[in-house]
Amino acid sequence: MAATGIPFALLLSPLVLWLVACWWLRRSRGTMRRDCRALLANGRAWRESDDAVRALFVTAHPDDETMFFAPSILKLAQARLWLLCASTGNYYNQGAIRKEELLQSCATLGIPPSNVTVIDHRDLPDHPSVKWDTSLLSTLILKHIETNQINLVVTFDARGVSGHANHKSLYAAVRYLHSEWKLPEGCQVLTLETVSLFRKYLSILDVPINCLHSQDVLFVLTEEEAELAKRAMWCHRSQLLWFRRLYVFFSRYMVINSLHFL
Ligand SMILES: *[C@@H]1O[C@H](CO)[C@@H](O)[C@H](O)[C@H]1NC(C)=O
């Protein structure tokens, strides 16, 4: 009896976890559909109305916005949105193509080309081991914040989700602006939480696990929104190697974003 019981339990536990995730998702959807103001209020008082939220997403490479930030971008659809991508993603000399793909994917996510800026700077190369200069980067980001009167900056956290040096540099630059009081008054910063490798590929199974952790903002996509995120990812045609296709189906970042205020 006991001998057959163990494999049976092993088989059953992912199923139970899956059912719990589905149930929780269904139950929580009401909350998630509420406007972003309510969600942002979880963290700090957010008094303005949604359309007064002027959010700037700061990413490192074309495709970061979809692979990591799609849930936040789609959930902040009521806000005014901008995207600043700090490189063209030219590591494999595909910069020009990737820039085009970025504009298409952003349009799918609801950010028009006029609100997307791609920095192409000699000193900010797309490279997994190059740490970008904090002073140069923070100057460029701050200029963008001031020009567009941004009051919410969304970027990577200190671990940069995938640990990419360029991602971590963005955090360092924004952190610097924040701690040196250089950001305009009322401008808040949200950083995308890096989760363990185990949680990273749990897709929506990671939803119940989020309940055990604290975060300031939690965005979970509905099925329709998750489809939209996938469609945005298919715009990055030059990047769709087999492992990225798998990523789209298994990464929790395609459906869940947990974020912290600085
Ligand atoms: C894009 O930027 C303009 C200002 O340049 C702003 O009015 C508009 O709301 C932004 N679009 C979106 C979708 O947020």
Automatic annotation (TrEMBL):
Keyword terms of this UniProt record: Endoplasmic reticulum, GPI-anchor biosynthesis, Hydrolase, Membrane, Transmembrane, Transmembrane helix
GO cellular component terms, A-Z: endoplasmic reticulum membrane
Top EC class of this enzyme: hydrolase
Pfam families (UniProt xref): PIG-L
GO molecular function terms listed in the Swiss-Prot or TrEMBL record: N-acetylglucosaminylphosphatidylinositol deacetylase activity
Pathway(s): Glycolipid biosynthesis; glycosylphosphatidylinositol-anchor biosynthesis
Record field: catalytic activity: a 6-(N-acetyl-alpha-D-glucosaminyl)-1-(1,2-diacyl-sn-glycero-3-phospho)-1D-myo-inositol + H2O = a 6-(alpha-D-glucosaminyl)-1-(1,2-diacyl-sn-glycero-3-phospho)-1D-myo-inositol + acetate
Subcellular location: Endoplasmic reticulum membrane
GO biological process, one term: GPI anchor biosynthetic process
Superkingdom to which the source organism belongs: Eukaryota
Reported function: Catalyzes the second step of glycosylphosphatidylinositol (GPI) biosynthesis, which is the de-N-acetylation of N-acetylglucosaminyl-phosphatidylinositol.
Official protein name in the record: N-acetylglucosaminyl-phosphatidylinositol de-N-acetylase
